[in-house]
Write a sequence for this structure.
């Protein structure tokens, strides 16, 4: 199959070596080494992106805009095939080929505040250069992806229709997540505020979606399949969810879960570097809420999946999603403890 795919790009498995690449959980990715050139080949996961053409259209629109308005911005566009396409379809699978960014590397786990700062600066820069892009031109590639109100309702429905034994065993965690329902009310209130702007938003700001140079300076953001209209709290919140604690959502020793204030400040400073002059006052006041919003939503999603027998995320061991949900609940609790100390950080400061 891969030989057929490469042939459409004028490449061949006889002259190119193809190896699996990265640790991404969604699309299948390979690195293609061809003599002096390297490429990244991806097969789109249609279980997640049900209409891959919408993904391709978004990237095409953004690329055209940046080439015209910000030609110096480093944007990794798909390579056009011999048939003139930026995404090809072979045996009902969708593929695209990207150039490999020379002298770049990605990071799987954020280890220093400087790395968090560089990543946040890149995600902020991405939204900043697209500040005047008409967000209405973007397709919704995953409907309701970061809709907290919907995720809360799905949680409530799972309590009514889910696995009765799991619901009973999860009683304490269910009660704890219910106690944070005010986050949903605040979310709804923000969406009705005219100062809370719909922007071009990446929606998946884990550290591995930033390319770094040899000096660990950020080059650009990658993995643009989830780029959609959205709110800045999605990007900032996802960084807080994945950068603040030294351990991931998979950790089952909850004593290791802490909120590192220097990482929080690095995220705010890095994102503000490029976004300070375009964020509204209401948005600037919502940095801390961004963390609560995203962590709470992920806790709800993990517990919901546990209650409906692991339909969405699956489980590598019994109770996997229950552990993940507890992990995120602990992280949320640790963040809320820092609210008084951190909530005003970055609200009134000038560009860092």
């Amino acid at each position: 199959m891969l030989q057929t795919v490469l042939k459409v790009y004028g490449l061949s498995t006889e002259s190119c070596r193809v190896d699996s690449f990265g640790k991404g959980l969604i699309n299948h990715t390979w690195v293609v080494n061809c003599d002096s050139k390297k490429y990244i080949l991806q097969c789109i996961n249609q279980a997640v992106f049900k209409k891959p053409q919408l993904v391709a259209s978004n990237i095409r629109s953004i690329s055209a805009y940046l080439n015209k308005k910000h030609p110096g911005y480093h944007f990794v566009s798909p390579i056009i095939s011999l048939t003139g396409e930026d995404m090809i379809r072979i045996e009902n699978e969708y593929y695209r080929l990207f150039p490999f960014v020379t002298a770049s590397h990605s990071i799987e786990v954020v280890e220093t505040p400087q790395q968090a700062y560089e990543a946040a600066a890149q995600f902020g820069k991405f939204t900043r250069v697209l500040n005047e892009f008409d967000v209405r031109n973007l397709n919704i590639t995953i409907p309701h992806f970061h809709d907290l109100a919907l995720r809360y309702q799905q949680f409530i429905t799972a309590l009514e229709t889910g696995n009765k034994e799991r619901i009973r065993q999860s009683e304490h965690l269910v009660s704890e997540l219910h106690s944070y329902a005010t986050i949903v009310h605040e979310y709804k209130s923000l969406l009705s505020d005219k100062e809370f702007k719909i922007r071009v938003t990446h929606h998946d700001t884990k550290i591995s979606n930033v390319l770094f140079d040899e000096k660990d300076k950020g080059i650009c953001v990658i993995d643009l399949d989830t780029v959609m209209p959205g709110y800045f709290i999605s990007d900032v919140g996802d960084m807080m969810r994945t950068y603040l604690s030294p351990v991931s959502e998979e950790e089952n020793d909850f004593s290791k879960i802490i909120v590192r204030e220097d990482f929080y400040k690095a995220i705010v400073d890095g994102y503000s570097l490029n976004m300070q002059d375009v964020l509204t006052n209401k948005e600037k006041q919502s940095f801390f809420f961004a963390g609560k919003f995203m962590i709470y939503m992920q806790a709800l999603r993990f517990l919901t999946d546990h209650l409906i027998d692991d339909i969405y995320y699956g489980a590598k061991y019994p109770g996997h999603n229950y552990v993940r949900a507890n992990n995120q609940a602990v992280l949320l609790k640790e963040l809320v403890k820092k609210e008084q100390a951190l909530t005003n950080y970055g609200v009134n400061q000038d560009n860092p």
